[in-house]
Amino acid sequence: MTSRERVLRALSHKEPDRVPIDIGGKACNMTSKTLFRIKDHFGITSDDIWNRPFESAAFYNDEVVERLGSDFRHIFLMPSDLETLQKGDDGIIRLSEDGTISNEWGFQYKFIDGMSTIVNAPLAEAEISDIATYPWPDPKAPGRTAGLVERARHLFEETDYAVEARAVSHGFFELSHELRGFENFLMDLYINKDFAHTLLDKMLEIQMEMYSVLLQNTGKYVHVVQTADDYGMQTGLLMSPEIWREFMKPRRKALNEHIQSLAPQAKIFHHTCGSVYPIIPDFIEIGIDILNPVQPLATDMDPGKLKAEFGDEICFHGAIDQQEALPGTVEKLDEEIQLRMQQLKPGGGYIVAPTSNIQDDVPLENILFYYDAIKRYGQYE
Predict the structure, then answer these.
(1) Which is nearest to 295 in space by CA: 356, 352, 224, 380?
(2) What is the 3-state secondary structure (H, E, C) of the chain?
């Protein structure tokens, strides 16, 4: 099978020749330092696409994902302010005198041991009236679509890969608590609901506009559209299911419908870390086709259990443990890959990937073993 045939068959809940592999998408990329390790190992010298400059996994490289065996290629909006940024050989943005760098949302970042961290909350003291006057990003800012249509058309018409559109930004919940401050916004959901609804509506409005920019001329070329918003932690949801259904579910449904109007043939992928078991039926109800990352060490997220309960209605993406297995011994990683394949491979509906971007603490030996083993263990008889 071609990569595209393999992916489409798996997403139809049918068994292809082997489990599809995703590299370079949401939560299945690698930190900048790790990408450079891979390039050095293979002697790859091709230029990287610097598409996530404020994140720890800042780069994308077509030759790297080709060498490692990905069945996907990705398209993405570029940052509007890329031309104003400078980077070093390590991929880290050159910082201002106080050690921070600001982006178009007003966030200030520091890179601590190579990891990107937001160190401010621009709306921490805001009132509802401040939401209307805040200097929001312009979804149609120049530079955002640089090379976008040409890349999408080329990948669709001249290659056999599945084409996957990356999420346009952090999710509307994540953006809200990053702007407001995590504890502040969680309290808003319970005791300051008018503010929470107003801020979430604004975040959703901007995200919809950004997806319009991403997909209005490329929607016909894509097979999967990624969305993202973290609703879980290791032990459970970040809010009660009732609060999630009041604030997040209707907006997530509206965003899914908007994406479908722009790319009706595409499957909708949703990334949410942690333990989200109680709301998986809601995900299915509002049109999410693919759930990522299926974090197996989080409470109630055992992949075998999820496959048995929901495998006919939703596809799973990820599931290879990043907390212990990937940075552990090769033997432990081998056991992990075999187990997840046994649990999720039968009947199709599975795309293999790690549960997060591959971090700097994962040995090169493990990375190379992982990409070899998932091809071997992912074969269908």
Answers:
(1) 356
(2) CCHHHHHHHHHCCCCCCECCECCCCCCCCECHHHHHHHHHHHCCCCCCECCCCCCCCCCECHHHHHHHCCCEEEECCCCCCHHHCCECCCCCECCCCCCCEECCCCCEEEEECCEEEECCCCCCCCCHHHHHHCCCCCCCCCCCCCCHHHHHHHHHHHCCCEEEECCCCCCHHHHHHHHHCHHHHHHHHHHCHHHHHHHHHHHHHHHHHHHHHHHCCCHHHCCEEEEECCCECCCCECCCHHHHHHHCHHHHHHHHHHHHHHCCCCEEEEECCCCCHHHHHHHHHCCCCEEECCCCCCCCCCHHHHHHHHCCCCEEEEEECCCCCCCCCHHHHHHHHHHHHHHHCCCCCEEEEECCCECCCCCHHHHHHHHHHHHHHCECC
- 106-119 pLDDT per residue, tens: 998 888 887 889 99
- The matching CATH number, chosen from 3.40.630.10, 3.30.230.70, 2.40.30.10, 3.20.20.210, for 3-377 is 3.20.20.210
How far is the C-alpha of 334 from the C-alpha of 19, rounded, in Å? 16
| Global model pTM greater than 0.90 | yes
Q: For residue 360, is pLDDT > 70?
A: yes
Is 31 in contact with 360 (CB distance < 8 Å)?
A: yes
DSSP letter (8 states) at residue 187: H
